[in-house]
Each structure stands twice: as structure tokens, then as C-alpha cells.
Amino acid sequence: MAMPPRNPAIQYVQPTIPPFSLPDITGETYVTLAPDTLDLAERARVAIHGMTAIADRNANGEIYWLNGFEWAPPTMYHDANDWIENKIFSPSLLLRQACGSDEGMDVEWHRMATMAQMQGDDGLLYLPMAGRPWGNQFGGEGFRDGISQAGQFAILAAQGRYCSVLETYHQLTGDASWRARAEKLLDALVRLSFRKDGLAYYAKSMYAPGEGRGACPAGMPPPSINFAFAWVGNGLLDYHRMTGSAKALDLAYGLARFFASGASGFVGPNGEFRANHICSTFEMIPAAHIHFHTNTHIRMLMLDAGIAMNDREMIDLARAGYRHGMAIGDTLMGYFPEQADAKAVNPAVYGNTTEICEVSEMVYLALRQSRAGLADEWDSIDRWMRNMVTESQLMETEWAYAFSRERGVDFMKDSARRDPAIVASNVGVKVPERFLGTWGGWIHPNDWQGDTSHRSVMCCCVGNMAMHFYRVWRDMVQFDRARNRLTVNLLMNRACAQADIHSYIPNRGLVRIEAKRDLELAVRVPEWVRPEACRCSVEGRPVDAAVEGRYLVVPVAHNATLAVEFPLAETAETRAILGTPFRITRRGNDIVDIE
Questions:
Q1: Listed residue (506, 523, 524) closest to 561, CA to CA
Q2: 335 — phi, psi (to 5°)?
């Protein structure tokens, strides 16, 4: 592929682009007939469209981080929050392994070039101000100070994810220079950290080139700074899992201990959620709303670090936080409120919506516990993927134009806070189509456009969901070579090297699995059916299945098809979600009607 043109006005810390190659999208492609039911690979294809179509090719592929369908016309814009695009870089490539899409590969080239140009001599990755007039707008308290003077700035929260992105590039291309960049960044993160009594933390959340780590804080950094440490730690744990790096694990575990100790203000003595990412002092915490997403992200760090270090106390504390989150939200739908404190969950007063971020992280916490053998949360994953994750993915766009005409306001007149740099970069052409496949940012139980302040999608949530979406697709089947066993954990359509899984749920209680080799199949039966109520047949002939917990185990020959049939009843109920009653009809775990 020819190199796409770059915008020379954007002045990265490294002026030249080193040579590199794009990853190959490899795999077998074939045509088959499958039920028109939930297919995560097809959803992945549409997600890739969204994650690349939201890029501004005139700004070296930088994303438009936020859009709104309640503006007229529907609008997307740049501001300082564009930095969160780092969350999209890995899943945008990894989801291609699920579906084979090569759409928007020129955007991937821009992203890889940008990553190479952002790394300073000290190892950190810096965002430039020159050529990005929106770069210090809407940044929040303290965000403007020093940035425009420095010309380049490194956001601490992004550095851990950058580390895992660089290694993802290495894994997908085989180019050792990406690993070298990741190691250089890891050394910088170690150098900037403070260590005390087994805890690791930082003095600040932003750095200018050559600034150093700053003065050791007299007390612990407040939540408005320390929430960023969890982003660092989670990125380092990704890097550790890909490379086995003991250095990355040591720092990530120290950061996890910082949160588990209670020093951050986010973790209560029984693992409960506390605080939010805008608490500038610890005194603010009792009065502050509790931010669900920041708290779940911290529990991800604690759970993964605890598992890696076999720290049972940390694991238990993280799992207590997961159960705390379960108690706040609706566990059938997977609806978890953005503000998790008792006052804020009253939608009549606060209009509380869900960020798809916390949904994705609850899915990950359930997935990680299940894969580690700590709990069986596959039914939670199944419910949330069917009823919240896929239902909040934007799959139709025509409604957005009618919605905008009916309720939209002029973006430029919407708020006096609109800075000229942001207004100049707003784009009002085919915005809904460009966001097709992304996930809504502020959702009500029965309303994709739950927010009333003219916002629809924020791309930080898109990146978080896309990563965990990939992980669910990856882990819904597991092949054990030693036992020659394919384990099917979720009854959704899936193609893999060993078999094709065709699920008729929720239309029929039937799953058909076509074996591509002689193997043993272990099929997990969902919670709404008893294993003994299932009927198994191979090529139409009834067979007896061994029962291992919720798994039916059947040997199947190459090219043979296992059919698992079970009763699938339709039920109706009224349930309160954040205090509002909803009438819900469902088949199995699928909500098929809600009002």
C-alpha cells in the first residue's frame, strides 16, 4: 500500500517516520449458510468500519472523539480528548482477526506512523500542540496550564495502553522495533514512579519533555491524579501477558497494591466503589458521585495483578468490587449506571445513563474470573453481550437524521464554551454513517440516545468496548490440544479452525456444531435450561452426552455435525431498572421486547 499523505503542520516530537509494514490480515475465507442470529464476527466487521471512519485523514488519522445526533446537522468534533484514540489502536487491528476486514487500513498506517513519531528520547509518547489547535480545548481543570508552553505533552493515563499497543504491533508484524519502543516506554514508566512500602504511584498525571518525575507528594496523590495509575497498570499487565515481562508485572502489581491498600480513595474496606476521577482532594469523596467506570477499571487491575501474583487477598477484594457493581445495576440487561452512588441512580432527578465503558469492564471482570476458574460467569457474559453490548452498537443510521431535524440545535450556538478551534474542526457530513458500528456513550434501558445534552458517542467508550468485545469473541471457544477438546462457552455463531458453531437462539432451542476434524466437543448449557433436558444427536442419530457441570461432552468425527436441542420458553416480567419499571419479554437470555 502506498503511504497516505501526512499533515506536515502537526509537529511530532520525532519529525521523520521510520519504515514499517502493516500487519497482514490472514485466515481462511469461505461461504456457508448460518442462522441470522448473533454473530460477533459480523459485529466486529461493522465496528472496524466505525473505528476507522471516525478518523480525520487530514489530521493524520486522528479521531473525532465525540459526536451528537441532537445537533443539527449531526456533528462530530475534535478536542483535547482525542488523545483517548490510543484505546482504539489495538482492538481495531485485533478485531480484524475475527472477521478478516481490511477496511480502513490506510488509517491503521497513520496510527502506526503516529505511534512511532510520538516517542520522545526519554521513552514517553508525546502529543504535539502545533498543528492541532483543538489540543488544549475542553481539557478540564489544569489541563491547559503548561501544555501550550511546552508544545508537547505526555498524558500518564495513555502510556500503559501505548505500551500494549506497541507490543500488539510487534506481535502482528514481527517487527522487533515495536518491542524496542515498548521497552523504552516501560523503562520511562519505571523511572518516573515512586515506591513506598510495596506501593507504586506517580506524582502527577501529565509530563512535558525532560520534566522528570516531579517531587514526591507529601501525602498520597488525590483521585483526580491517581485514577490514571490504573490505566498505566492495566496496559502493563497486557504487555506482561504478551511478553512475560517481569519488570512490567512488578510495576503493575505495585500500582494495584496502591489501590488495594485504600490509599487511592477508590476502594472501600470491603471492596465497595468510592470516589470519581474529578475528586481533587480526599475530602471531596464523601460528597462526590461515585463513577462506576473508573471503579471497575481499578478492579480489573486488582484482579489481573492478583491472579498474576497469586495474591488471594487482592483477588478477593477485586471480586468483592465486582459483586458490589452487580448489586447496583441490572444483571439481566447488563445495565450499570454511570454514577453508582445511591442518590445518582434516581433517573427522575439525575437522568442517570450508562456509559458503555462500565458495561464492557463488567463483561471483562466476568470473563477473567471464568477463564481463571475463580467463578462461572458465562451466563452473565451471555446476558450482557446479547442485551446491552450488541443492542448499544449503532447498526442503523436513518433515524439519526429525523431525530436531528426534530430536536437538533445548531452546534455553534449550543454553548458559549465552544472554542473557535473546536468549531472550526466540526464536520457535519455523513456523521451517523461514519459512526456506524460504534457504541453509544450515554444509554437508557430502552433508548440508545439517552443523553439530553446533544451527545451520542464518545470514543473512549468505543475503544474500551471494542477491546473487551474482541476478548469475548476470542475466549467464547477454547481448544485444548492435549485433550483434543473444543470447549464452547457461549452459544452464539462462531467459526474457528476446529468447528463452525451455528446457533438458532433465540428463535429455536437449537445449536449445530460442524466439526472440521475428529475431536471432543464440550458445550456449555446456559442457565435457563437443565443439562438433562437437552437432546444430543450426531448426523441425526441420538447420542448420550457425558455431563460435566454445565457442559455436555460428546466425541464427534471430522465433517460430522452435533445438534444440541433444548426447550426455549418465552417469559414476561416487570422489573425495576434504577427505580423505573419496565415490562420485559425474553427467550432464554435474550430480551426480545421491552417497554
A1: 523
A2: -95, 110
pLDDT at residue 343, as a whole number: 65
Strand ordering across the sheet containing 519-524? 477-480, 485-488, 519-524, 551-556, 546-548
Q: Say which residues have a Cβ less than 8 Å from residue 426's Cβ, sequence separation at least 6.
A: 75, 76, 77, 411, 412
What's the CA dihedral at 281, 285, 286, 290 to 10 degrees?
Answer: 160
- CA angle, 113 then 86 then 132, to 5°: 65
State how far the Cα of 346 lies from the Cα of 339, in Å rounded to an integer. 10
Length of the chain, in residues: 595
Q: Bridge-partner residues for 68, per DSSP? A: 75
Beta carbons within 8 Å of 165's beta carbon, 6+ residues apart: 86, 89, 90, 115
Identify whether the C-beta of residue 292 lies closer than 8 Å to the C-beta of residue 238.
no
Taking Cα atoms as reference points, which of 137, 142, 52 lies closest to residue 102?
52
What is the structure's pLDDT at 140? Answer: 39
Low-confidence ranges of the chain (pLDDT < 50): 139-146
444 by DSSP, 3-state: which?
strand
pLDDT of res. 461? 93
Secondary structure of residue 200 in the 3-state scheme: strand
CA nearest to 111, candidates 228, 254, 4: 4
- Rg of the chain over all Cα atoms, to the nearest angstrom: 24
**Whole-number pLDDT of residue 142:** 37
pLDDT of residue 139: 41
Which residues on adjacent β-strands are paired with residue 66? 77, 458
What's the pLDDT at 51? 98
Count other Cβ atoms within 10 Å, centred on residue 136. 19
Q: What is the pTM of this model?
A: 0.96
Instruction: Say which residues have a Cβ less than 8 Å from residue 402's Cβ, sequence separation at least 6.
Output: none
* pLDDT attached to residue 351: 63
How far CA 227 is from CA of 123, 287, 430, in Å, comes to 22, 18, 36
Q: How far is CA 375 from the centre of its chain?
A: 21
Grid cell locating 553: 461432552
What is the predicted pLDDT for the residue at 48?
A: 98
Range 15-38 burial, b when 16+ CB lie within 10 A, else e: eeeeeeebbeeeeeeeeeebbebb
Encode 482-526 in three state secondary structure.
CCCEEEECCCCEEECCCEEEEECCCCCCEEEEEECCCEEEEEECC
Rounded distance between C-alpha atoms, residue 110 and residue 61, angstroms: 6
- In this structure, what are the phi and psi dihedrals at residue 373, rounded to the nearest 5 degrees? 75, 15
Distance (Å, rounded) from C-alpha 572 to C-alpha 294? Answer: 34
Residue 105 three-state SS: helix
CA angle centred on 470, ends 296 and 165, rounded to 5°: 80
Residue 573 sits at the vertex; the CA angle it makes with 570 and 577, to the nearest 5 degrees, is 130
Say if CB 90 and CB 164 are below 8 A apart: yes
Edge-to-edge, what's the strand order for the sheet holding 127-128? Answer: 127-128, 152-155, 206-207
Q: How far apart are CA 53 and CA 62, in angstroms?
A: 11
DSSP conformation letters of 21-74: -PPP-----------SS-BHHHHHHHHHHHHHHTEEGGGTTEE--EEETTBSS-
